[in-house]
Amino acid sequence: MAKPKVNEELCIGCGTCESLCPNVFKVENGKSHVIVEDCADCNCQETIDSCPVSAISME
């Protein structure tokens, strides 16, 4: 199963991912982090598409 991943070098910490998938992403210290690797509670593809710097992917 594919898991969400954040490229911290690209991430600008805007918080869009956390607002769309708060159970999967959390912004800490100005960068987003994956806190749960299961997108069952949200649409991770929408989050990937909404990231303004394309820092989120599924691997």
Span between termini: 8 Å
CATH topology: Alpha-Beta Plaits
Output the radius of gyration.
10 Å
The total number of structural domains is 1
Strand count, sense and barrel status of the largest sheet are: 2 strands, antiparallel
Q: How are the strands of the largest sheet arranged? A: 1-4
What is the percentage of strand-forming residues? 15-25%
Number of strands: 4
CATH architecture: 2-Layer Sandwich
CATH class: Alpha Beta
Uncertain spans, ≥5 residues at pLDDT below 50? Answer: none
Summed up, the helix count is 2
> Structural class of the helix and strand makeup?
alpha+beta
Order of helices and strands: EHEEHE
Overall 3D geometry? globular
Q: Report mean pLDDT, rounded to a whole number.
A: 95
State the share of residues found in helices, binned by percent: 10-25%
What does this structure look like?
This protein has 59 residues and is an alpha+beta fold. The chain has a single domain (4-58), classed as Alpha-Beta Plaits (2-Layer Sandwich). It is built from 2 helices and 4 strands; from the N terminus they run βαββαβ. It has helices at 16-20, 44-50, and strands at residues 4-6, 25-28, 31-34, 56-58. The strands form 2 sheets. Strands 1-4 form a two-stranded antiparallel ribbon. A two-stranded antiparallel ribbon has the order 2-3. The mean pLDDT is 95.
